[in-house]
TrEMBL record:
The keyword Transmembrane applies. The chain crosses the membrane at residues 23-42, 69-90, 111-139, 194-212. This is Uncharacterized protein. It comes from Durusdinium trenchii. Keywords: Membrane, Transmembrane, Transmembrane helix.
Amino acid sequence: MCECCCNSLGFCCTCLYGIGRSIPLISILSFMLFLLGYSLAIHGRTKTNQPLEAIGVTDLTALLHDLEVVFFFALVFNGLGLAASFLASGKTRELLFQKADYCCTSCFQFILGRCTLGFIMTACLIILVVDIVMLSLVASASTLVLEVLGACSQADLLKSPVSMTLQLVTGVTLPLEQFDAICRSDLGSGFSTLIAGTILIVIGQVLIMVTLSSNYTKILLEPYLAPREKWSTDYGSASDAAA
């Protein structure tokens, strides 16, 4: 009776352990960072789009206009990468991509593993390049935004020469009314939100690429692992070392 209970308890613990190590926690965290970053970036764009266009940051605003399109493709391929991470983690990977004895199984493993994951990695790499470009544009525009915000803080003292002073400092020519509209907008808080969002986007996308490359390597190596290496409880013991 006690032996039966111990065996049942051991089986349950082994099953829970297999389920636990089959959950790709880093991939889930990366996907959450990606979603949070894009939500912040879209929220920041709504506050900064018009002021940025007014001060002449056309490259960044052009990219931000297509932010929903970039987010859609990123959501699709990052979602596929997250789904692939579940297939390439822990016991699920060991069951799906272990050494195959039949040609059909090997073809299925190639299509589901190397082919599909390689395509997802390529698409996610392109998305990462776009995210880095967006972060670079945001970083390059930050100096100009800070100068404009600094001029806004001195607008009451500068009075009529404010437009001329802004042109001398930043090279941007603005009518006084348009400058006042920029100062009354949420450019400061919106741009801070945009910067935070783009940083989280890049961090999340980098982590997604790292997990995808790790999963790709594990899938490639899985067929070459002998069952004893994967399942034996005494693997690495003194008897194995002596052999």
